[in-house]
């Protein structure tokens, strides 16, 4: 079997843990896709015996994990959800569509969606039901912007069914992070000359197997990341003082310039901390940690808007 012949399908479930049977239109264009079919807790029998040696273990619950990367790009049509939008639903986001205009993803704290994910490997199917996960974003200069996903789902025995051909038409060619393609990158309303942006939603994903219930649940999130940009003179923008004060500032990044392929990442209450200095092409750079916090109304630490 060939390791390179792999792809996934993902669809939101209407009933938790019940496979809605995805089709080719539910294909996800991925890279670095890896599956771990038989994960879970195991307990030793710890038997008394006259000699030394291992005791057999018993699996107390099985789950499956899958990880992969997805390029950050729109669907190509404003107001049409990108192919990766369903993945954010499985990571504790909801989706708001304004026809012909925008699709917005914002975190939620209840009524979490779950996914069924099909992982095909050279004709064999590994299936996750009731899957939920977490996502991180990485926009680095001269690189393709990426999202990295990690999902945990209920285990299903592998099969060799009729293969469903993937349809990746909702995935368009991404744009690298450059001056021309990333027109907005501001921190506290100041346009920084950016090197790197990362944001990890850090959702707490828990597999639970108790009497009368087996599920994967989201119990918390702690979005945080890093910024790297060319150092500014104190008289121009005093990031040292901004970090020391603990002030909450806005971060706004817009990537893409053509309708249907513009992705904006914003946070209105981001705390900057632990600045450090580095060197990039002989220029002094500043690296800062970011902590993304909600307002009093909640569920607004970050917004992902596709226009």
What key attributes describe this structure?
two-stranded antiparallel ribbon, mainly beta, globular, 17-stranded antiparallel beta sheet, 51% strand, 307 residues
Account of the 3D structure:
The protein is mainly beta. It has one domain (6-39, 56-306). The protein is 4% helix and 51% strand. The protein has 2 helices and 21 strands. It has a 17-stranded antiparallel beta sheet that branches. The chain has a two-stranded antiparallel sheet with strand order 4-5. A hairpin with a 2-residue loop joins strand 9 (115-121) and strand 10 (124-140). The longest helix has 7 residues, at 239-245. The radius of gyration is 22 Å and the shape is globular.
């Amino acid at each position: 079997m060939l390791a390179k012949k792999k792809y996934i399908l993902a669809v939101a479930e209407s009933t938790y843990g019940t496979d809605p049977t995805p089709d080719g239109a539910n294909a996800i264009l991925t890279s670095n896709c890896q599956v771990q079919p038989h994960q879970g807790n195991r307990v030793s029998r710890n038997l008394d015996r006259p000699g030394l040696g291992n005791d057999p273990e018993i699996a107390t619950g099985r789950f499956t994990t899958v990880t992969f990367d997805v390029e950050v790009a729109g669907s190509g049509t404003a107001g049409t959800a990108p192919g990766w939008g369903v993945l954010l639903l499985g990571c504790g986001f909801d989706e708001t569509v304004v026809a012909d205009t925008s699709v917005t993803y914002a975190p939620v704290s209840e009524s979490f969606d779950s996914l069924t994910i099909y992982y095909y490997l050279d004709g064999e199917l590994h299936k996750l039901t009731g899957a939920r996960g977490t996502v991180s974003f990485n926009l680095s200069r001269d690189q393709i912007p990426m999202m990295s996903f990690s999902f945990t789902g209920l285990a299903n025995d592998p099969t060799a069914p009729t293969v469903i051909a993937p349809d990746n038409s909702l995935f368009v060619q991404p744009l690298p992070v450059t001056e021309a393609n990333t027109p907005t990158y501001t921190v506290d309303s100041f346009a920084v000359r950016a090197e790197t942006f990362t944001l990890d939603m850090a959702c707490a994903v828990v597999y639970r197997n108790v009497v009368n219930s087996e599920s994967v649940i989201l119990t918390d999130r702690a979005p945080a990341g890093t910024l790297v940009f060319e150092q500014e003179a104190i008289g121009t923008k005093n990031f040292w003082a901004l970090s020391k004060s603990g002030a909450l500032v806005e971060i706004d990044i817009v990537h893409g310039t053509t309708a249907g392929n513009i992705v904006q990442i914003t946070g209105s209450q981001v705390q900057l901390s632990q600045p450090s200095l580095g060197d990039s092409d002989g220029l002094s750079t500043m690296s800062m940690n970011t902590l993304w916090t909600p307002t009093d109304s909640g569920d607004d630490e970050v917004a992902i808007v596709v226009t």
